[in-house]
Amino acid sequence: MIRNIRFLRSAIGKSFSTANQTAKWNAGVVTQSANGIATCAVRPLSVMPGTGINQNGVFSIASRQIHTKGERELVEFLAEEIVAEKKASPTTNIPTSLNGFKITCNKADVELTKSSEREKVVISFNVNHTVDMDGDEADATENKPEFSAMKSRPQFEVDITRGGTTLSFTCSYLPGEAQEGEYNDVFGIDEVTIYQGEWNDKVYAVAGDVLDGYLYDLLMNFLEEKGVSNEFAEKMSDFASTYEHAKYVELLEAISKFTVEQK
Q1: Which of 155, 98, 154, 151 is nearest to 121 (CA)?
Q2: From the first residue on, what is the mean pLDDT of each consecutive set of 10 residues in the chain (263 residues)?
């Protein structure tokens, strides 16, 4: 199972020489496979202005591009952080499909779509503010105090459309993990609604926790038949974790590029 590693700032020691402004890390962009990205490509940023990588793989920062002490310290930290994040990432490839659902991404938004002659199923979510520590792995240890395991568990919408009518579910991942011999759902239904045409705030919706228990179970079975099972939800969380991590690294690179750009 994929796990993102988010390094804590306070635990990373500097390994930069302030005398010659040289960082002993290679912060080049990880190459991504063209076949693994397609519609969901995370475009790497170009090499930052005023920076370079010499034959020894040393990342250098041109001092003339950095005007303040704060900027220099920020760029030095980001150079190290970017390399650490890329080393921690298990993969740089973002899949374009998941269990028969086509994946398309637009910045922080993700949409998974599967169509048949009878209906169209669309799952949508946003990866912003969806990362948290992953269970017991979040506990710092004496041997590994410098990082914590992180995982994205976004709230997601499931829209099942037939003709002009849409049955819509709002779902969230549930805390905790199933104990041995028990069966616990990975996600739960927060809200259910059905509407004609486009949704608006006048459409009635009912909260999942006030539904009849048997009806709730039937709706969960209905979602499973449409491909939204507990197993699928786990895989979708893994995908969201990988994609969110890629966007996080992209953000770090953008901040670094902004800091050293020509004024």
Answers
A1: 98
A2: 38 39 37 38 45 46 66 93 86 88 98 96 98 59 54 97 97 78 83 96 96 97 97 96 94 93 64
